[in-house]
């Protein structure tokens, strides 16, 4: 790291701290040549490769705006969307890759959105996964029902006989 005052390349780290969200490190440095101190920020970059081949920086805001459309009219707050976007980013960063396909980002959104709001999940999945028929919706709804049964402790769907006296 070059000193911004004397342009010397030899400096030592005096202090290091992570940023609030842990995505960057703030380092306080001191130049070994002139003795002046300066601050640097280090952050990992994450790029998204779009279908067109264009590469752009990953953006939580784009995640939030895309999911917000699916959540329109649903009881989902901006805080919920911010947490979802953070969770998606953490999931992607945990893979240890610097570039990811836009399709993979969309797939990473599905599970957290499914947990947040099932109707919004169906809306997002229908567009993202290109549902073409009622059968596609039925399969997704059946999957949601199966998950609900598992979470409630039931191993099968109730039948009319279960409710007979």
UniProtKB/TrEMBL annotation:
GO MF, one annotated term: DNA binding
ATP-binding listed as a keyword: yes
Free-text comment on the cofactor: Binds 1 zinc ion.
Keywords, comma-separated and alphabetical: ATP-binding, DNA-binding, Metal-binding, Nucleotide-binding, Repressor, Transcription, Transcription regulation, Zinc, Zinc-finger
Record-stated family: Belongs to the NrdR family.
Role according to the record: Negatively regulates transcription of bacterial ribonucleotide reductase nrd genes and operons by binding to NrdR-boxes.
Record's protein name: Transcriptional repressor NrdR
